[in-house]
Amino acid sequence: KDVQKEREPHVYLSKEEVQEKIQSYNSSVTDKLKMTLNANGIYTGFIKVQMELCRPITVQSSQSQGRCAHSNNETAFYLPDGCVNTLHISSTNTVREVIEALLKKFFVADNPAKFALYKRCHKEDQVYTCKLSDREHPLYLRLVAGPRTEMLSFVLREHETGEVMWEAFSIPELQNFLRILDKEENEQLQILKKRYAAYRDKLEEALGGVWKPG
Fold this sequence. Notes:
Elements: E1 2-3, H1 15-28, E2 36-37, E3 43-51, E4 57-59, E5 68-71, E6 74-77, E7 84-90, H2 95-105, E8 115-123, E9 126-131, H3 138-145, E10 152-158, H4 171-210
Parallel strand pairs: 1-9, 3-10
Antiparallel strand pairs: 2-3, 3-7, 4-6, 5-6, 8-9, 8-10
GO biological process, one term: signal transduction
Subcellular location: Cytoplasm, Cytoskeleton
Domain Ras-associating: 71-161
């Protein structure tokens, strides 16, 4: 279930409460991704973000893997399903900064405004997905929820909902999308041709057996 609204402002913790929360958090961590509280009250830690992108991304590299199409020194390709990235951030980093850091880590050339960060949580045997405000702080949410990703996880998606706003994409991006679609169409045609060729061979073999002189 998707809740397409921003999270209500939360109440921040005092330094003493943060210290207590971090100690509890670190005692429950199983993957060694602990949080650290600095003397100035700012704490650092790790968050994992699952990439759920329906459209290809454009990267400034010619070394990309997977289904891709090239345009000058840029490459458009689909990220693998279920791709998860780990970021080391601080309590001062906002959602917008986390999105920009993710795109920079993947060398993504797309405009960060095309993407949004969501939180996914489980309540009463149901899964809720809520878009986060650009002003929120993911590490704070991670600290309050604890280290268990089944209680809270982060997801990166395209910002647009409903109809795709193609005018937001550049000409090279659109040209890359067309190349990818052409390639996928040809691949599907080849698969269909092989499938029906196999059916035809089996039918002809069966017909040959039926009409074989006794």
